[in-house]
Specification:
Elements: H1 3-11, E1 14-17, E2 30-35, E3 38-43, E4 49-55, E5 60-61, E6 72-75, E7 79-84, H2 92-109, H3 114-129, E8 130-132, E9 137-139, H4 145-152, H5 156-168, E10 172-175, E11 178-181, H6 188-194, H7 199-206
Antiparallel strand pairs: 1-7, 2-5, 2-7, 3-4, 3-6, 8-9, 9-11, 10-11
Helix pairs in contact: 4-5, 6-7
């Protein structure tokens, strides 16, 4: 057996990583996520982190899919992955799914306001990693305000303000450090008003005040 064959077999074996580990970036290997959640990210020359997406079981990540450098694969949870040869026809279904996900993220990033973008991202996270409980729709990933800010390309302060407003308007709540969406179809006018960041404007549009 040649050294190249041995290297390929080693790289395509099942591997397990702990939370906060980085999956090794190999030019000739795609990683199929079998369990857990992985965040892909890059950063600017100024050091600003840019989140490229969150990926779960059935998704693939890896250098062969990266059009930019640097490119990191960060484990948000304990993760199990299996290496795939990117040149094999068997990877095509994974690639089709990747294209659909990236198109959905591109659509989300074109939302008119930061509030609508943030809410759409929360819905997307629920669709990928959530399930329904008695209170509503739980997003089964612990994600920080900074994580959401990097995904939405906005500031942590803006995300914190909007999340507080979402809670005040009973659009979501927190449960054991997870977000629970209380509705999947919020009033669009409500989201647009929250984007203004002016409490009095919100109250006028919604016909409510702090005492109600």
């Amino acid at each position: 057996m040649s050294p190249n064959t041995l290297t390929l077999l080693e790289s395509t074996a099942v591997k397990v990583f702990s939370r906060a580990d980085q999956i090794p970036a190999q030019a000739d290997v795609l990683w199929e996520i079998q369990r857990g959640i992985v965040r892909t990210q890059t950063w600017t020359e100024a050091g600003k982190v840019i989140s490229l997406g969150y990926w779960g079981a059935g998704d693939v990540v890896g250098i062969p899919l990266a059009a930019i450098q640097p490119y990191e694969m960060f484990c948000m949870t304990p993760v199990m992955v299996r290496g795939l040869d990117p040149h094999q026809e068997s990877v095509l279904p994974f690639l089709y799914q990747q294209v659909k996900t990236l198109q959905k993220l591109a659509w989300i990033m074109r939302q008119a306001s930061v509030a609508e973008k943030l809410w759409s991202l929360l819905l997307w996270l629920f669709e990928k990693f959530g399930y329904t409980i008695q209170e509503g729709c739980l997003i089964d990933i612990r994600i920080t305000h900074q994580d959401l800010a990097e995904l939405a390309d906005t500031s942590r302060v803006t995300v914190t303000r909007l999340l507080k407003q979402f809670e005040a308007q009973r659009l979501l709540c927190r449960r054991n450090k997870h977000y629970v969406l209380l509705t999947l179809e919020p009033d669009l006018l409500k989201l647009q008003s929250l984007a203004l960041g002016k409490e009095n404007t919100v109250q006028k549009i919604l016909g409510c005040d702090r005492k109600s």
